[in-house]
C-alpha cells in the first residue's frame, strides 16, 4: 500500500499554521527566576504549568546543574545513576542502558527520553543511544526523572518512566561555556556552548562537541570482530524570536554521529554507527483563550549495525511529530491542558547478506492522539492531577518483502486503540510533611522492528535464521500504583523521601522461536515477535538529601523485586535483571576555591540474559559489588575550573553484569565560562 510522507504532512499543516510553528518547552519558562523565587527546582513537564519539585503529584527527581557538575561525569547515564530506583547497565565504553525499578535489558524500551520537548529515543527498537544525544553536559539546566507509567502526561511510550533533559534557554540564560577533558582509555573530549542576544527580541544558542576513546576489554572471542573504538560528534543550534509581546517563535536543529558497542535485544554485543539529524519549529502564543503551544519536529536516523550473525544491517528511522495544545485556567484553582498530536514513523531495513536480497521492507505507522490534563488546587495544601490520552494507531507495510516472508504486505495493515491515564494527589499534611498517591496506566507500543522487521540470514549450510516482526502484536500495558512520603528535617537542612510501588506489565513482547519452516532450498529457523505474557514488580526507595555550611549529602536505598510469568522468564528474564538491593551515598564539601565530592554504591547480585554465540541466550549471574568514585574541583579563576574525577576507583575492573567488565576511569577536565 503506497503512501507518502507528503500526505501526512498535509494533515498537520493546519495545526502548524494555527500556532505559527512549534514549541521548545525550555524557552517558554524562566526556570532560573522561578527557582530563585521558590528556593527549589521548578518543572513544567508534568502538567505544562510551573510547579515546585516538592508539589508535584508524580514521583519526580530533579538533578540540578550543580549536581551534574559535582558528579564529575560527562555521561548522562552515569549522572542518572544518582537516582534511587534507576540502574545503569554499561555494556561498552560509551554503550549504556538505563533500567527502572527492576526492569533491565539491552535496547531498553521502557523509557521515554526527551531533550527540550523533543523525543530522542529511537523508534527502531524504541531504545535510546545515550551517547548520540546532541547535548553539552555543561549546558544542561536540569534532568527530570519520572518513575512509573506516565503515558497520559508525557506520551504513549512513557511506560516505565520519563527522562526529560532541559537545557539553558538562550532567552533567559547566558550559557557560554567550553570544556576539554583527557583521561584513561585515551579519552579526549571537548564541548562548547555560546549564547547570542539581539535587540532583546532575538536570541540564539549554539553547541558542538566530540569525543574519542579506546573501547574497554572483556569482549567474548566471537565478539571481537565487531569491536570498535568509541567516537561521537554533535552540533546544535537554537533560535528564539519574540515576534510580538505575546508570541514567541523558535527554531532548532541538531546533528549527531556516534560509534559504539552495546548489547542488543538478543543479549549479544553489536557495533553501531548511528547518525541523526533533527529540525524543530515552534512558538508559544498567549491568547485570551489560554497559552497555545505547538511542537513540530522531524527526526531522521541512519544506523549501520553490525553483529556476528547478521553482518552489516542498514537501518533508517524517520519520525515526524506535530502537536497543538492549549493551556488555560478556570478560576484560580483549575488549570487545564488539552492537546492533539500526530506522529508518523517509518523504518527502512536492508541486510547485506539477506537471503532475499534486496530486502527493503519499510513498515510505517501513523498515531493520532488526543490528550487532556486537569490540575485542581483544591486548597493550599491539597492538589489533584488527572490526565488522559487516547491513541489511534494505524500501520502498514510500504516496502518489499522477500518471496518467502512469513507475512504478506496486506497482513501489516493494522489498527489499534490505546487508552492511558494518570491520576495523582499531593497532600501537604504540615509545613514539613507531604503525602503523594498516584495511579498510572501506561502503554509501550511495539517498536518498528517488533511490528514490521523482516530479514533472513544464512547461519549454516542449508539453514537460514529468520527474524520477523508481527503486525498482530498488542501494546504492552503497564499499570502502576504509587505511595510516597516526604518530610523536611529543618534541624539538619534535609529532606527525607520514601516511596512504595506496585507494577503490572501485561502482554510483554519478545522474539519467540516458532520452529523450522522448510521453503526449498532452505530450512528457515523462525523467530517471530510475540506477546509472551505478564510480569509483576514491587518495591520502593528511601532517600535522605541535604546540605549545611558547605557540606552536602545524599544517601539512598532501593529495593525492587520482579516476578515473571514462565515464558517471560525464559525469554526476557526481567526477574533478576536488576539488583534487588541498591545502596548509594554521595557526600561533598565546598570551601573557597575547592569543591570535593565522593560517592560509593553497593549493588546486589543479578542474573541477566547473555548470548554465548550471537544467537543462543542463557541467564548468567553476577555477584554483588561495591564501587567508589569522586571529584576534586579547583577554581583557577572566577570563570575557570580544573577538576579531576574518577569512577570505579577501588578496582581496575568491576564485573557489574554478564557483559564486558567496567574499567576504572579517571578524567581531568578544564572548564571555562566566558
| Annotated CATH architecture | Beta Barrel
Strand content: over 45%
Low-confidence stretches: 1-26
Query: Major sheet: size, sense and barrel closure?
Result: 22 strands, antiparallel, barrel
In one word, what is the shape?
Answer: globular
Give structural notes.
With 674 residues, the chain is mainly beta. The chain has a single domain, classed as Beta Barrel (Maltoporin, Chain A). It is built from 7 helices and 37 strands. The strands form 6 sheets. The protein has a 22-stranded antiparallel beta barrel. A hairpin with a 2-residue loop joins strand 19 and strand 20.
Please outline what is shown here.
This protein has 674 residues and is mainly beta. Helices cover 7% and strands 59% of the residues.
State the main characteristics.
5-stranded mixed beta sheet, Maltoporin, Chain A, mainly beta
Secondary structure elements and their pairing?
Blueprint: H1 5-19, H2 31-38, E1 42-43, E2 51-52, E3 60-64, H3 65-71, H4 76-80, E4 86-90, E5 96-100, E6 111-115, E7 118-119, E8 140-147, H5 151-154, E9 161-167, E10 177-183, E11 187-198, E12 202-212, E13 231-244, E14 247-263, E15 269-287, E16 290-307, E17 311-330, E18 334-351, E19 363-379, E20 382-397, E21 414-428, E22 433-444, H6 448-452, E23 454-460, E24 463-468, E25 476-489, E26 494-519, E27 522-548, E28 551-564, H7 566-571, E29 581-591, E30 594-603, E31 606-611, E32 617-622, E33 625-635, E34 640-647, E35 653-654, E36 662-663, E37 665-673
Parallel strand pairs: 6-9, 24-27
Antiparallel strand pairs: 1-2, 3-8, 4-5, 6-7, 8-9, 10-11, 10-37, 11-12, 12-13, 13-14, 14-15, 15-16, 16-17, 17-18, 18-19, 19-20, 20-21, 21-22, 22-25, 23-24, 25-26, 26-27, 27-28, 28-29, 29-30, 30-33, 31-32, 33-34, 34-37, 35-36
Amino acid at each position: 500500500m503506497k503512501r507518502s510522507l507528503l500526505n501526512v504532512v498535509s494533515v498537520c499543516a493546519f495545526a502548524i499554521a494555527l500556532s505559527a510553528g512549534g514549541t521548545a518547552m525550555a524557552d517558554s519558562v524562566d526556570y532560573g527566576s522561578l527557582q530563585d523565587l521558590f528556593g527549589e527546582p521548578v518543572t513544567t513537564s508534568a502538567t505544562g504549568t510551573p510547579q515546585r519539585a516538592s508539589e508535584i503529584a508524580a514521583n519526580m527527581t530533579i538533578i540540578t546543574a550543580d549536581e551534574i557538575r559535582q558528579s564529575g561525569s560527562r555521561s548522562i547515564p552515569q549522572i542518572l545513576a544518582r537516582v534511587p530506583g534507576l540502574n545503569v547497565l554499561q555494556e561498552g565504553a560509551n554503550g549504556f542502558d538505563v533500567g527502572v525499578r527492576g526492569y533491565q535489558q539491552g535496547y531498553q524500551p521502557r523509557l521515554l527520553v526527551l531533550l527540550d520537548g523533543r523525543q530522542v529515543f529511537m523508534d527502531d527498537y524504541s531504545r535510546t543511544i545515550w551517547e548520540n544525544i546532541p547535548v553539552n553536559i555543561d549546558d544542561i539546566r536540569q534532568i527530570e526523572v519520572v518513575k512509573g507509567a506516565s503515558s497520559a502526561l508525557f506520551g504513549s511510550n512513557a511506560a516505565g518512566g520519563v527522562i526529560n533533559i532541559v537545557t539553558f534557554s538562550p532567552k533567559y540564560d547566558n550559557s557560554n561555556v567550553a570544556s576539554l577533558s583527557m583521561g584513561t582509555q585515551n579519552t579526549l573530549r571537548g564541548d562548547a556552548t555560546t549564547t547570542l542576544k539581539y535587540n532583546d527580541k532575538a536570541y540564539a544558542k549554539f553547541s558542538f562537541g566530540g569525543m574519542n576513546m579506546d573501547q574497554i576489554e572483556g569482549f567474548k572471542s566471537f565478539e571481537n570482530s565487531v569491536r570498535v573504538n568509541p567516537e561521537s560528534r554533535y552540533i546544535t543550534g537554537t533560535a528564539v524570536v519574540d515576534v510580538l509581546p505575546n508570541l514567541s517563535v523558535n527554531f532548532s536543529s541538531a546533528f549527531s554521529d556516534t560509534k559504539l558497542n552495546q548489547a542488543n535485544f538478543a543479549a549479544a554485543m553489536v557495533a553501531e554507527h548511528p547518525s541523526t539529524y533533527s529540525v524543530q519549529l515552534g512558538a508559544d502564543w498567549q491568547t485570551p483563550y489560554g497559552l497555545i503551544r505547538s511542537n513540530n519536529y522531524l527526526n531522521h536516523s541512519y544506523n549501520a549495525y553490525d553483529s556476528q550473525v547478521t553482518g552489516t544491517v542498514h537501518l533508517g528511522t524517520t519520525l515526524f511529530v506535530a502537536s497543538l495544545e492549549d493551556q488555560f485556567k478556570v478560576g484560580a484553582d483549575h488549570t487545564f491542558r488539552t492537546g492533539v498530536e500526530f506522529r508518523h514513523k517509518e523504518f527502512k531495513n536492508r541486510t547485506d547478506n539477506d537471503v532475499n536480497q534486496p530486502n527493503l521492507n519499510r513498515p510505517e505507522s501513523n498515531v493520532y492522539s488526543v490528550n487532556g490534563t486537569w490540575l485542581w488546587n483544591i486548597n493550599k495544601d491539597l492538589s489533584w492531577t488527572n490526565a488522559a490520552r487516547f491513541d489511534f494507531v494505524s500501520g502498514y507495510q510500504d516496502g518489499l518483502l522477500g518471496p518467502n516472508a512469513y507475512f504478506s504486505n496486506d497482513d501489516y495493515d493494522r489498527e489499534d486503540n490505546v487508552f492511558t491515564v494518570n491520576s495523582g494527589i499531593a497532600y501537604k499534611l504540615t509545613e514539613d510533611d507531604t503525602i503523594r498517591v498516584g495511579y498510572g496506566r501506561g502503554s509501550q507500543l511495539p517498536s518498528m522492528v517488533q511490528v514490521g522487521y523482516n530479514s533472513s540470514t544464512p547461519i549454516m549450510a542449508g539453514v537460514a535464521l529468520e527474524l520477523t516482526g508481527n503486525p498482530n502484536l498488542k501494546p504492552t500495558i503497564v499499570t502502576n500504583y504509587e505511595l510516597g512520603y516526604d518530610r523536611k528535617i529543618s534541624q539538619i537542612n534535609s529532606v527525607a523521601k520514601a516511596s512504595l510501588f506496585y507494577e503490572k506489565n501485561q502482554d510483554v513482547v519478545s522474539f519467540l522461536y516458532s520452529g523450522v519452516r522448510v521453503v526449498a532450498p532452505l530450512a528457515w529457523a523462525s523467530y517471530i515477535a510475540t506477546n509472551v505474557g505478564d510480569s509483576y514488580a514491587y518495591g520502593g526507595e528511601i532517600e535522605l538529601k541535604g546540605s549545611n555550611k558547605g557540606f552536602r549529602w545524599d544517601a539512598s536505598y532501593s529495593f525492587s523485586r520482579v516476578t515473571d510469568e514462565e515464558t517471560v522468564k525464559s525469554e526476557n528474564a526481567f526477574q533478576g535483571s536488576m539488583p534487588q538491593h541498591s545502596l548509594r551515598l554521595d557526600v561533598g564539601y565546598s570551601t573557597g576555591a575547592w569543591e570535593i565530592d565522593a560517592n560509593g554504591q553497593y549493588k546486589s547480585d543479578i542474573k541477566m540474559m547473555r548470548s554465548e554465540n550471537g544467537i543462543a541466550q542463557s541467564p548468567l549471574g553476577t555477584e554483588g559489588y561495591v564501587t567508589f568514585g569522586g571529584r576534586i574541583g579547583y577554581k583557577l579563576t572566577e570563570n575557570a575550573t580544573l577538576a579531576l574525577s574518577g569512577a570505579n576507583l577501588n578496582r581496575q575492573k568491576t564485573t557489574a553484569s554478564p557483559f564486558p567488565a567496567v574499567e576504572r576511569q579517571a578524567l581531568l577536565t578544564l572548564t571555562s565560562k566566558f
